[in-house]
Amino acid sequence: MKIRLILFLYLATIGICFSQSAMQVGIAKINITPKSPAFMTGYANRDKPSEGVLHDLWAKAIVLSNKQEKMIIVTTDLLGLSHQVSEEVAEKIQGKLGIERRQLMFNSSHTHSGPMIWPSLSVISEYNPADQKIVSEYTQVLVDKLVTVIVNACEHQEPMQVFVGHTSADFAINRRALAAQKNGINLPGPIDHEVPVLKFMNASEEIKAVLFGYACHNTTLMGNNYLINGDYAGFAQIDIEKKIPTATAFFILGCAGDQNPEPRGTVELATKHGSTLADQVVNLVHSKDLKPIKNELQSYFSTIPLKFKKVPVADYQKDLQSPDKFIQRRAKLMLEAYNKGWNTETYTYPIQGIRLGNEFRMIALGGEVVVDYSLRTKKEFPGKNIFVAGYSNEVMCYIPSERVLQEGGYEADSSMIYYGMPGPFENGIEEKIMAAIYLTIKKIK
Ligand SMILES: [Zn+2]
């Protein structure tokens, strides 16, 4: 009798703890693999559509809510969403569910083995009208699927306890440092190997979701690959879902702008990097090193104008004669923009913050953000448990730090050609973004 009473009290205590700190959580996933053959994106040298599918691509949504607040995170096995796609989805979701922009975060894994998303990177390929129709049709189907997956996640919620922990993986290297060494110059090469992990467990102690992040370009496979797949991040998610069959795995890409997997070039290596990451995540999930997160949610979203360096129109007129077809296409795009009076001076840049309890904060930055932003934010906010995600909400171009901008090279300058951007950003970009990060952290407290 006594034992039964103790057992009852023990279970009742667990139940009270669970319900007090549990959030309502909903999870959904939807297959976004294009019908093969599809035009792939990420590498400028590809000259034909995809030739098959290695594994499926997914869009996944997780909704967290309590009595006061709601937050939705959407991950995609794609190179990056265009501004048009994420804003159209956000508008539709606001109309259907009353979700504000600040409550909805998108992140892309930046696989270079996925389909082209219209109109991003239009300088990489020139399409005839029939091909353009295929690309824009996929993009419209994607918008509808993203809306569907968010609605599905919101419709099936149950109480869950959320836990957080950190591990690491070591296959990311600073690719600028590697390139500099090859050219005989010795540059320091910052990296960030931290892997934040969130575990979502329901009242039956089933792990329903695992969310994890890493700062490394999703480019183990290169431009000679014509099979659709999610690269190392895709393999890692598949691996985690195999090892924890009750769970959906969500990958968030960090500040990977100047980080590459090493070694790279084969499916075997993409699989290996994926399982390295998955093993670290699964070991942590099954360990006692995770802390429960309090049932508090906060979010904030803003945009800031980032200025480009001024480029004289005459330079683009000269570029029209360039033997490089990409420089030519960018020049055509810029001259069209000048003629039509479009804004070529600034980019409206999105910055978002979310907080779960006091134990996990995520700053979500747009574009291909270099690792300096993650390292600096963590250093300047010790004890705030921050993960800085890049590739969030939209991927418009690279986002260099002041150091990278001064050093020049692909991430600072020449990549802007492929993104169809006017030119490099003006000096002072890092301070502007850091000021916005400070404000965001203040707003989410
Ligand atoms: Zn990239």
Q: Can you walk me through this structure?
A:
The N and C termini lie far apart (48 Å). By secondary structure, the protein is α/β, with parallel strands linked by helices. Strands 1, 4, 5, 6, 8, 10, 11, 13 and 15 form a 9-stranded mixed β-sheet that branches. It has a 4-stranded mixed β-sheet with strand order 16-17-18-20. Helix 5 crosses helix 6 (267-285) and helix 7 (313-319) packs antiparallel against helix 8. The relative contact order is 0.14. It is built from 12 helices and 21 strands. The protein folds into 2 domains: 24-304 and 345-444, no CATH class; 311-340, no CATH class. The model has no long low-confidence stretch (mean pLDDT 93). Helix content is 37%, strand content 26%. It has helices at residues 2-21, 83-97, 129-155, 175-182, 231-243, 267-285, 313-319, 325-340, 372-380, 402-407, 410-418, 429-444, and strands at 23-31, 40-41, 52-53, 58-65, 70-76, 104-108, 114-115, 157-168, 172-174, 194-202, 207-214, 227-228, 248-253, 259-261, 291-292, 297-307, 346-356, 360-365, 368-369, 386-389, 398-399. Zinc ion (ZN) is lined by residues 110, 217, 368.
